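Still learning. Show one?

>
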Amino acid sequence: MRQAALFILNGFNSFLGSIFLVFFFNMPFDHIWLPTVILLGFMTIWDWDQQNPQILMRCVGSLLAAVFILFHLAFWFPTLEPASVDTTQTNIRSLEQALELYHLNTQSYPTTEQGFEALRSLPTVEPVPDTWKGPYVRGSLPVDGWGNEIHYSSDGTAYEIWSLGEDGQPGGEGDDADIYASQL
């Protein structure tokens, strides 16, 4: 029974150590088995040298490792914020590509009144193009990284695409700043 408990504790310690190595060395999670096996092997060898391993020390060590990992993870969460800006920029570029395909086929861009819907289905608002070969966007239209609508304005010869940022209001700074296709 004691050996089984030690083996389980060794496995837990190895897994915690593996998670630390994955984050410390920026390893992908699908490779977590490798450091787990290595650490489990070293801990098993270490057990053979010890006649009376101290379970309390291992529990404390496991707790400290868990606290260290959680502390380390806390610094990773703020880096997730800029992903919303990146998502918005990617979605704007995607819409630009769809607009360019539309323009190649119809020799004009959808007007403001036609909007992005003209990329999904044949426009019903004038001017209706004779050479529409869409849909140029499949499924739902992309939104910005915060789930807000991406805005569009065009006279048919040029266009502008923009997001109003996280707050959904014109202007702003940081994540609230507007993101324009012409500035990418």
